[in-house]
Structure formats: C-alpha cells, structure tokens
Amino acid sequence: MDIGRIDAIIDxxxxxxxxxxxxxxxxxAENRWIPGEAISRIGERLEVPAARIxxxxxxxxxxxxVPRGRHEIHVCMGTACHVRGxxxxxxxxxxxxxxxxxxxxxxxxxxxxxxxxxxxxALGPVVEIDGKIHGRMTAxxxxxxVKGLEGPRKTE
Length: 156
Prior knowledge:
Blueprint: H1 3-12, H2 20-31, H3 36-46, H4 50-59, E1 71-76, H5 79-83, H6 86-97, E2 103-104, E3 110-115, E4 127-129, E5 132-134, H7 139-149
Parallel strand pairs: 1-3
Antiparallel strand pairs: 1-4, 2-3, 4-5
Helix pairs in contact: 1-3, 6-7
C-alpha cells in the first residue's frame, strides 16, 4: 500500500490518535489487511508507538496483519450452529478451499476463519461469505457456494 494512500486515510481522520481504530478499519477495507509499512506510517503521523498500534490490531479479530484472500469465509461455531452441524459445514468449506481456519490459499482467493457467533442463531448453521450471511447451511451447500466463488471453469 503506498504511503500517499495511507496519508490520505489519516488526513481524512484529521490525524487524530483517537481515530486509530477507524484508520485501521479504512486501511483494512481498502487493502484486505494492514501492512507493516501502514503501521509505521500511522505511528509517525499520529505520534503513537508502533507497538501500541500492533496491540490494537491484534486485539480485534476484524484486523489482519497478513494478506487476506479476495473471498473471506467465516463459519460460525457458536452453540446454536454447532448443534445444527457447523462442524460438517466447516469440513466442507475446508475441502472446497483447500485451507484450514486462519489460513489464506496461495492464490489469495480464499481466507477461512471460524467465529464464535454471528448473531443469527435462529438461522444456524451460519456462514458469512464476503459480508453476506448464508443461513441454514449444509455441508453440500457450503461446498457448492464456495465452488461458485471460483467462477466458471475453463473447458478444453
């Protein structure tokens, strides 16, 4: 991420240290992760130690300090989803993406995460893909939905 873009985001928040979380959110939204150079630049501009910025960025699960895939998949493992088969949905999601929770595939297409609750327990099991909630998910639907993200296959 280029320094000019980081500066523009910081300027939009009037270089106020109290806006640190919003600045990090804006960088994350634009870049899908928070690069080290962004942390350094934010620290310089806001006069906040880089260690404090890293602490904030690692405290909140919404932030990532490693590159994320184009499609973010969050499988709810909360109690309501768990008793309705979330483990099978997670297994199918892992099989379809080739990655485990906390990982991003080498092609930067998918990132897979588990979450404790997405707040829609009546719809369980629930999967959030790119910010969109998919309720009453089954293993078969999870695999089909993920494969649909891959786009059309080339035929020979």
